[in-house]
Amino acid sequence: MKPWVVKPVEHSPCGPSGAPRWINCPGSVNASKGKTDEESVFAAEGSAAHWLADWCWRTAAAPRDFIGDIIQVGKHKFGVTEDFADAVEDYLEWCAEVPADISFSETKVSYESWVPGGFGWVDRGMIKDGLCTLRDLKFGKGVQVWAKDNEQLLMQALGVLETHWMEDIQEFELGISQPRLDHRDTWRISRKDLVCWARATLPPVLEKINAGTEFQAGEWCQFCRFRRECAVRANVGLTVAFGNLDATEPVNPIMDPAEKAKILPKLAVIKSWLADFEKGVIADLVAGKDVGGWKLVEGRSNRAFANPDAVVKRISPDDAFEKKLRSPSQLEKLMGKPRFTKILGDLVVKPPGRPKLASPDDPRPAMTNLSQVNFTNLDDEE
Question: What are 265-287's pLDDT values in tens digits?
Fold first, then answer.
């Protein structure tokens, strides 16, 4: 079977998906020019999910019709599993709940009047009675994302406002769907407030972009093509980790809570920078560069079957495969929500999630009764 091939689309240096980066770190725009960055498998999987959602919307097909098919994005290939199809279906069902006179999917929108050369893509948009509802699909299983003050969604809304200027849009409902995290979030903003935000935010950012100035490290660094060479980002990690190396005052070996609180806002930057720094050095060594005598050695490897099909032919399927109970979400899709609730509803529980650090402005409530929760070893990797 030939795979479904997802064609690449053009991107703007100041596109919505990169808005958190270029708004907060304007200098990264010029610094990234001419630099390529291989698409990660996670980004490619997201592109595959967006393609399937768009195809199903345009053809009225069901995601489950594609189970067993292959979707190719660049050099990456993804098999459409039940979990993959169900996640896309969850997003489509959420979009279908919104009434609309005008509806569009994976559509290019421009905000040239705000940012010269600026354009981007809207995952799904619906317009009715002066309200424009935008739904953004995020297919990853990692970081939970929120709609309030989300720069990507705000730039998409500006693009819709400019592209669909004939429509009398007075308010936007911005929504994020993360089906594999069982997360949906929405936030409303009026047309007036959106324009006020743009007027206050974008002109000074454009001045800095044109001047190639002002770099600021943050969570957005992980998507920057300049990230492995950025001295500002490296300096954040090194300064927090080692402090002022010229300091002569004695260092207290015990950190108090106030000292820890100073480091926490930079924790994500440090962890991300360390991972990218190591990858950058590995890339240098692969390219034959001398990095102070450091070298690449063979790491640990696990055994694997060279020909899985041959294994199945030599032993029974019962020995070759293990059975796995379907998740509540999978069974709900399979049985239908009313039947699932009637038969299995009382057996469904949602155990406490693994504790995660969050900043004071995070909208999620703080966990309580931590002493009564049986968490796994926090030293184990997630």
Answer: 878 888 888 888 888 888 888 88
